[in-house]
TrEMBL record:
It comes from Streptomyces hokutonensis. The keyword Disulfide bond does not apply. It comes from the Bacteria. Signal peptide: none annotated. Residues 146-457 form the FAD/NAD(P)-binding domain. This is Glutamate synthase subunit beta. InterPro entries: DPD_II, FAD/NAD-bd_sf, FAD/NAD-binding_dom, Glut_synth_ssu1, Glutamate_Synthase, Helical_ferredxn.
């Protein structure tokens, strides 16, 4: 183990953030560069080597957390990187974006603050890039088989990298103009700078993966034609159909889906625009939805110079501490979170429901009308006399996603079966009802976390490899039916 008394001698210490007034002036990541390395050895040393590492179960990738904690504690960064990459293709993504269910399952977390697993992870991978421990892993020989991957989010990239390293010729199709999916255009720069994606893409190119941007399967290229060109297809198109809010005034200018708003600010950082075509500058902004995407909208609005930012959530405010009865360890608890975006200002309002929008004579949204709600006999009920309105000149809808895109024709052209939740159905090998067509990530699982996407991509790659060659040595960390460690 690392330090036998580490968890007794050292408390939890996390990465330091740059001052709010400083970081709001740019789009760089919020953390102080280099602040983790001086403390990460002691933090890794808090790992208990607990015998039964429940952190493995909390993480769908099955990350070998005690092992790379030990190496990080000892300063053996090369070994730590090798152990980290043994289960995770892109730890720099998860180390920045994952909500860390592994930490919720940490045995130390039963009665103490858990190990800073996420911070250790990102320290290891950042050090690995710095020292050159991350290098292309080209296959020794080619199989002669070809695979198309539809979608370049974390599931698609993980599947593509695994299959390329197995010797197959892989082409990734992305309908956007750049590779990365929601990592590229759904995650703001202040949460993950896109240089992290760019260097992984270059690694994958060097390994032999090919990329095709600006090609939407179903529209630009028929799904049936794609199937004829390749020996196998992996659909990793995500669950991009956003949940809408069908209330009066929804058609007013200024009411946008989060994924209509967020990509524009990312395109500014890419140099496509000088200023975002839809900007919060000088406006009263309302974000509907209390999750991570909503928080991304909050942080983006702050940096664009919003006059005010209000985030609405229909559910009650979560508790500050784990409820041992309703959310026992090692499940992932639903707790009140203060993200970096919330540290920067704005108001959060819980237990409210939007009734309608009100606009000016030119059709621009000006006010949002809401009412307080409560649960009565398990049903959400409006509280009489609590109606009010708040200023809203820009509204973003961040209420989650309902499934994969059906409008582009991909699902219907392949004649894919759907499950009871509207996701693409698959068997134990992640294969759909169409032989040779597989599905990974949110398109098959529904909206989920980045660690689940990467785990699905790796597992689907094994299914594809077995389909093409009859056997596979690729790892499959999860089954399609596996679910998060939650009550």
């Amino acid at each position: 183990m690392a330090d036998p008394k580490g968890f007794l001698n050292h408390g939890r210490e996390v990465a330091k953030s740059r001052p709010v007034d400083v970081r709001l002036k740019d789009w760089n990541e919020v953390y102080v560069p280099g602040s983790l390395l001086p403390i990460i050895g002691k933090q890794a040393g808090r790992c208990m080597d607990c015998g039964i590492p429940f952190c493995h179960n909390g993480c769908p990738l099955g990350n070998l957390i005690p092992e790379w904690n030990d190496y990080a504690y000892r300063g053996d960064w090369t070994a730590a990187s090798e152990r980290l990459h043994a289960t995770n293709n892109f730890p720099e993504f998860t180390g920045r974006l994952c909500p860390a269910p592994c930490e919720s399952a940490c045995v130390l977390g039963i009665n103490q603050p858990p190990v800073t697993i996420k911070n250790v992870e990102v320290s290891i991978i950042d050090k690995a890039w710095e020292t050159g421990d991350v290098a292309p892993q080209a296959p020794e020989r080619l199989s002669g088989k070809t695979v198309a991957v539809v979608g370049s989010g974390p599931a698609g990239l993980a599947a593509a990298q695994q299959l390329t390293r197995a010797g197959h010729t892989v082409a990734v199709y992305e309908r956007a103009d750049r590779i990365g999916g929601l990592l590229r255009y759904g995650i703001p720069e202040f949460k993950m700078e896109k240089r992290h994606i760019n260097r992984r893409i270059e690694q994958m190119r060097a390994e032999g993966t090919r990329f095709r941007t600006g090609v939407e399967i179903g529209r630009d290229l028929k799904a049936t034609d794609l199937r004829k060109r390749y020996d196998a297809v992996v659909i990793a198109a995500g669950a991009t159909t956003a949940r809408d809010l069908p209330v009066p005034g929804r058609e007013l200018t200024g009411v946008y889906q989060a994924m209509e708003y967020l990509p524009l600010s990312n395109k500014v950082q890419e140099g496509d625009y000088v200023t975002a075509p839809v900007s919060a500058a000088g406006k009263h902004v309302v974000v509907i939805g209390g999750g991570d995407t909503g928080a991304d909208c909050v942080g983006t609005a702050h940096r664009q110079g919003a006059a005010s930012v209000t985030q609405l959530e229909i559910m009650p405010r979560p508790g500050d501490e784990r409820n041992a009865v309703s959310q026992p360890w090692p499940t992932f608890p639903m707790l009140y979170k203060v993200t970096s975006a919330h540290e920067e200002g704005g108001e959060r309002v819980y237990s409210v429901n939007t009734t309608h929008f009100e606009g000016d004579e030119d059709g621009n949204v000006q006010w949002l009308h809401l009412v307080e709600v409560e649960f009565v006999d398990g049903k959400l009920t409006r509280k009489p006399g609590t109606e009010r309105k708040i200023p809203a000149q820009l509204v973003t809808l961040a209420m989650g996603f309902t499934g994969t895109d059906r409008e582009n024709g991909l699902v219907d052209q392949f004649a894919l079966d759907l499950d009871e939740r509207g996701n693409i159905a698959r068997d134990a090998d992640f294969q759909t009802n169409v032989p040779g067509v597989f599905v990974a990530g949110d398109a098959g699982r529904g909206q989920s976390l980045i660690v689940w996407a990467i785990a699905e991509g790796r597992s689907a790659a094994r299914g594809v490899d077995r389909f093409l060659t009859g056997a596979s040595e690729l790892p499959a960390p999860i089954r399609p039916t596996d679910r998060s460690l939650m009550v």
